[in-house]
Design a protein that fits this description.
about 85% helix, single chain, 6 helices, about 160 residues
């Protein structure tokens, strides 16, 4: 940005100088012609650089607009993914609740045999969704190692974390 400001300053200050030089009488010496030629070359170079800066600015604006569009698209996709994930988690929560009711209706021995083969996290969620009395009966019918693992997992189970199955 500072380069652009400097270039604009130079362009604005060179234009009056060029007008003044053109108004003056024809150069009288070789030295004057050489200086005028150098000034004109410098002015032309600065003008070309200014034109190039304008082109680059337009390209940057175009790229910025494209990036902004992509950001909006990504934000919309993120919101859609969040909505879908929340819906999926809610559906999974309903299914866990339904499954826990099914396990509660089984005998404690049969439920224990099934629960010991489940993923620990799912087993913990099922036990957490059950009536505590029934969950206790099921834990009582599990082998000591599995019951301890599930009980420990139950106490360490994060409340705010969504299911991972």
């Amino acid at each position: 940005m500072k380069k652009l400001q400097l270039l604009l300053f130079v362009l604005l200050s060179v234009a009056p100088v060029e007008a003044a030089v053109q108004k003056e009488a024809a150069p009288t010496s070789v030295e004057e012609r050489r200086i005028r030629s150098a000034i004109e070359e410098q002015y032309n170079r600065i003008q070309k650089e200014g034109d190039q800066l304008k082109v680059e600015q337009m390209q940057l604006k175009t790229l910025q607009q494209e990036v902004d569009k992509k950001l909006v698209q990504m934000q919309n996709l993120r919101q859609e993914l969040t909505r879908l994930l929340n819906r999926k988690q809610a559906e999974e929560g309903k299914r866990v609740t339904e499954l826990s009711k099914i396990y509660e209706k089984m005998s404690a021995r049969k439920s224990a045999d099934l629960i010991k083969n489940l993923e620990p996290r799912l087993a913990i969620e099922l036990l957490a969704a059950m009536n505590k009395k029934n969950a206790g009966k099921i834990l009582d019918n599990l082998d000591q190692k599995t019951a301890t693992r599930l009980s420990t997992g139950f106490t360490e189970f994060p409340v705010d974390q969504p299911p991972s199955y």
